[in-house]
Amino acid sequence: MKGNISLHAVILFCNMKEVFIKFFDNIGKKAISFFEYVGGIVILLFNTLMWILRLDIRINLTIQQAALLGVDSIFIVFVTTFFSGAVVSLQLAELAVRYGLAKFIGGGVAIAMCRELAPMLTAVVVAGRAGSAITAEISSMKVTEQLDALTVMAVSPVKYLVVPRLIACLIAFPILTLFADFAGVLGGGFVANMLAGVDITIYTDSIKNMLAMKDFWGGLYKSLFFAVEVVLVSCYQGMTTKGGAAGVGISTTGSVVISIIVVFISNYLLSSIIFSL
């Protein structure tokens, strides 16, 4: 009887040992993959900056990408942030009616939009629309060996594909954020006037009194960081695609998911730095 108990104990110990080994092995692999990914992004950023500092930029391709990634995204950014501002105003209007704080609605909406919602929602929308398009295009070139063909012809894929898109987004993101600021404040003003009966003059005066230039510029600074993050993740996902046509879909989905996660994390870090000074 004791022998059977000892045997079961040994078997249980061996099974537990195997489970723990697999568990920590998976953690190790995930950690290695994470640092490889971060290292790849950093190297891509370094190579891209080297081409930009050389001023070796394809102007026509950059303008084309600015139109594709920026101009074509204006409508969806405007609609998204208009209703986001409307929602913020809706919540503030309820409190204003209850406690008589109507004079704070405009400033509250403007601060929320300029500091957080406008740059962050712009980045998320562009990551979903334009970032996925970047990854799909580059990953298709990867699986059809067009990137290898560029290398054989002594054309750097980074110079040809990444640099124009990065510069285009560095131009487009702040402009889109300005549209988002305006759309959010406009949506908030519409709701405040319709639901809370707040006069438009009181709404605009509240914005003038409460919104500081630091809030406005802080959101624009954020948009530049978000532009770099979205472009680098999208391009890196495309340039490291494996597995043929199926890999294109996997890379494109991963590009959107990772970009949004990075945007949310960096938004917190940037807010804690910019608005705590």
Structure description:
The protein is built from 9 helices and no strands. The chain has 277 residues and is an all-alpha fold. Helices cover 88% and strands 0% of the residues. Helix 4 (105-143) runs parallel beside helix 8 (213-239) and helix 4 packs antiparallel against helix 9 (244-274). The protein is globular.
Residue runs with pLDDT of under 50 for 5 or more positions: none
For this structure, the quaternary state is single chain
What is the molecular shape? Answer: globular
Q: Tell me the strand percentage band.
A: under 5%
User: Structural class of the helices, strands and pairings?
Assistant: mainly alpha
Helix and strand element order: HHHHHHHHH
Write the layout of secondary structure elements.
Layout: H1 2-53, H2 59-69, H3 74-99, H4 105-143, H5 146-152, H6 157-195, H7 200-210, H8 213-239, H9 244-274
Helix pairs in contact: 1-6, 2-6, 3-4, 3-6, 4-6, 4-7, 4-8, 4-9, 6-8, 8-9
Summarize the structure.
The protein is mainly α and 277 residues long. The protein is built from nine helices and no strands. The longest helix is centred in the first third of the chain and has 52 residues.
Question: Keywords, please?
Answer:
277 residues, mainly alpha
